[in-house]
Write a structure and sequence with these properties.
Elements: H1 23-27, H2 33-38, E1 42-43, E2 46-47, H3 54-65, H4 68-72, H5 74-81, H6 85-109, H7 116-123, H8 126-162, H9 169-172, H10 183-197, H11 200-225, H12 241-253, H13 272-301, H14 313-322, H15 325-359, H16 378-394, H17 399-425, H18 440-454, H19 458-482, H20 484-489
Antiparallel strand pairs: 1-2
């Protein structure tokens, strides 16, 4: 339920941070909701600017979610589920929905830039918040690099179909895949950096245009491919049973990661209490509808067994149905724009999370310095962009890229817990959106996240464990002592 015009703090007052005590007390210190909201937008030397409405916020979440997944995922999921991959998309969407409901409630109640990091700080304590923020750095930072790596492949497809020229593998493939330096990966990250340095309003406008282009590209695919749909291709609808449908659903869940990106814009939204919950839910609905529509037409236009090993299934279907290369080239253009949009929005989210952590003293102050003219955290943006660009261009990511999934699921799980805790500790606080059937739905969301984390392979857990160990060393060596809550206690 949406309640108009409500402000986050109301009702019972937030308890003060605990007085100085033992180590356990310091690790559990919480940042009051009122203080989080009051500090919203404030950085070193300037403030973030509130310039985005609900539509721009929705486009940020769609931009971060609707990317490489739909362009390549069918080749992986259809062999598991057959034509019932449509149901798999619905199952994955429902799985994401439980966490999205929790995000929507907290985004409306605590409209700040830190996303789940800030929600955890207000409810679960500083150590848990740090762990959550560290997971988000893994999710956003590495996923930018992982997505950028694939941009060169689609760029080459577009170049081959238009000018008959492609970049050599040495300059368009990551190390380990036949290349030495992935130049396109670095270029797309630097292009995103340029937009972000111009300010949130300008980057949101660019993202809206790119999202519109990739939605039009997918709708064009549907318009062309529907001519090749044959009812016989749906005949054996669930060839591998519900087991296959469930397995495909687990694979497809990661196509929904990114719907939470709007929550990182809490301090740059004009009316965050009203618009953030709506943007999160609307983006998930739009993405799910597009996924199901594209999947239904794709499996109707091509027998499901032919999807095995097909990484460019949509382009192949358009070419087979139309008999022309033009449509496949057009789809490649859509994929190039789609990946660029993901890089832009995810990079934006990464900079805003670091902004919030820096303002709290947990990472260096340079990440919260705001340029007075543009209202953008310039130094933050440049540092993050160069790091992600070099990571994508020069370092083999391997299983590290898969670790983004486990970091995301862990953050989602914590958000579901935070909703229940905030309902218990602040029952009278005004909320512009309430997760229905709480605590049942948040508990279901939490259990689904834990289940999906358990389905990941051992090497992913090892990478995650190493990343967490490094994070704890950084926290105990730097963040715990320099935290603004710690210095306020002295």
């Amino acid at each position: 339920m949406l309640e108009h015009g409500a402000a986050p703090p109301a009702g019972a007052t937030e308890p003060r941070p605990p007085a100085p005590g033992g180590l356990g007390t310091r690790l559990m210190r919480r940042k009051p909701v009122e203080r989080l909201v009051a500090e919203g937008g404030q950085g070193e030397g300037g403030s973030l600017r509130r310039s985005m409405g609900m539509w721009q916020l929705t486009m940020i979440s769609i931009g971060a979610t609707l990317g490489t997944g739909i362009f390549v995922v069918l080749g992986e999921a259809v062999p598991d589920a057959g034509p019932a991959v449509i149901i798999s998309f619905v199952i994955a969407g429902i799985t994401a929905l439980f966490s999205a409901l929790s995000y929507a409630e907290l985004a409306g109640s605590i409209p700040v830039s830190g996303s789940s990091y800030s929600y955890a700080y207000a409810t679960l304590g500083e150590l848990v918040a740090w762990v959550c923020g560290w997971c988000l750095i893994l999710e956003y930072g590495v996923s930018v690099a992982a997505v950028a790596v694939g941009w060169g492949q689609y760029l080459n497809e577009l170049l081959a179909g238009t000018v008959g020229f492609t970049l050599p593998d040495a300059l368009s493939q990551p190390p380990g895949d036949g290349g030495y330096f992935n130049l396109p990966a670095l270029v797309v990250v630097l292009l995103a950096m340029v937009f972000l340095l111009g300010g949130a309003k300008e980057s949101a406008r660019a993202n809206t245009i790119m999202v519109a282009v990739k939605i039009v590209a997918l709708l064009l695919f549907c318009g062309v491919a529907i001519q090749g749909v044959r009812s016989g291709n749906y005949a054996d609808f669930m060839p591998l049973g519900m087991t296959g449908v469930s397995a495909a659903g687990a694979t497809l869940f990661f196509s929904y990661i990114g719907f939470d990106a709007a929550s990182t814009a809490g301090e740059e939204a004009k009316n965050p209490q009203r618009d953030l919950p709506r943007a999160i839910m609307l983006s998930l609905i739009i993405v799910t509808a597009l996924y199901c529509l594209v999947a239904a037409i794709a499996v109707g236009a091509m027998p499901w067994k032919k999807f095995e090993g097909s990484e460019a299934a949509l382009a192949g279907i358009m070419k087979d149905v139309s008999g022309q290369d033009f449509w496949a080239v057009l789809l490649a253009f859509g994929a190039v724009i789609a990946i660029a949009s993901v890089v832009l929005t995810v990079l934006y989210g990464q900079t805003r999370i670091l902004f919030a952590m820096s303002r709290d003293g947990l990472v260096p102050k340079v990440f919260s310095k705001v340029h007075a003219k543009t209202g953008a955290p310039r130094a933050n943006t440049v540092i993050v962009s160069l790091f992600c660009g070099v990571l994508a261009a020069a370092i083999p990511l391997g299983q590290l890229a898969d670790a983004t999934s486990i970091g995301t699921l862990f953050a989602f799980a914590l958000v579901n817990v935070a909703v229940v805790v905030l309902r218990y500790t602040r029952p009278n606080m005004a909320r512009t959106f309430r997760t229905p059937f709480s605590p049942l739905f948040p508990v279901i969301g939490f259990l689904l996240c834990i289940y999906m984390m358990g389905s990941l392979d051992a090497i992913t857990w090892i990478v995650f464990g190493v990343w967490m160990a490094v994070g704890l060393v950084v926290y105990f060596g730097y963040g715990m002592r320099r935290s603004r809550l710690a210095t306020a206690e002295k």
